[in-house]
Amino acid sequence: MYKALVLGNSGQLASSLRDIMNGAIFASRTGPVKIDLLNVDAIFERLSSINPDVVINAAGFTSVDKCELEKKNAYSVNGLSVREIARYCRGKKIPLIHISTDYVFDGKEGNYTEESVPNPINFYGLSKLVGDTFALSYDSSLLVRTSGVFGSSKNFPIFVLEKLSRNEKVLVLEGYYSPIFSDFLARAVLQLIGLDYKGIINVAGERISRIDLAEVIADKFGLDRSLLIPSEGKLNLAARRPYDSSLDITKAKRVLKFDFYSTRTNLEEFYNQVNKGKQY
Ligand SMILES: NC(=O)c1ccc[n+]([C@@H]2O[C@H](COP(=O)([O-])OP(=O)(O)OC[C@H]3O[C@@H](n4cnc5c(N)ncnc54)[C@H](OP(=O)(O)O)[C@@H]3O)[C@@H](O)[C@H]2O)c1
Q: What is the pLDDT of residues 246-255, one digit of tens each?
């Protein structure tokens, strides 16, 4: 039995991994095992003391707007920390699984493949791209690029549901992405580890616009879809968003043995959680 270390604890993907990974160690600032990825110089030593056989980096500074305002911290957590993690994994010759984002792309084209050239338009994307580069400098790493993760904490489907349930208007950002339920992403990550998959792979849902997704959710819960309003630049966000950051998932569809991608299946899981009264 190998000793797996997941970086992340209460995060969406980390929580989904916990549900299916018995015996794994979860480390973050709030985790049962402590590690602070802001403290870049201490990471190598922390990893050495934990002494894992595989590292899944599910941690990240994921607030896109905060990254724009706190660039130094974003650069440490999303970028420099991955240098130390990759350095440790290379030294010990153990697999590194790193999670990347559709926001490394500029969103001008959409349907980005594993070979597409990144061109981030915000600091979150740039800092993640730095992390990706460090991860990929180690040839035993797996880079899972994903989009619009929704699971246990604040995310777009929950935001829409909460606002519409209160009969409040929702300004919805225009554009497309490839949202995926975090339990599916977690299951995909474990399957890829089992297959000893290396290099970049896109694991995400089907391409959909945020407004279409919001309308499907509104209809499902019998809520008023006329409260969904295209934002038309009125959101005043600190960071620019790529218009179409959808990912081409042809490769993952070939490799993975379950339907991780269809909008219908992803939303059914979301509805199940809501109906079970899962606390967010
Ligand atoms: N959310 C999305 O829509 C999305 C889209 C594309 C890609 N991704 C990528 O997918 C991965 C997982 O995303 P997620 O949605 O699960 O993220 P999340 O819910 O925001 O969780 C982030 C995790 O990172 C940990 N973390 C943050 N700062 C840290 C620090 N200084 N030291 C140690 N740990 C720290 C948090 O630890 P605590 O548990 O202690 O708070 C948390 O577990 C990330 O790499 C993200 O960039 C996410």
A: 999 999 999 9
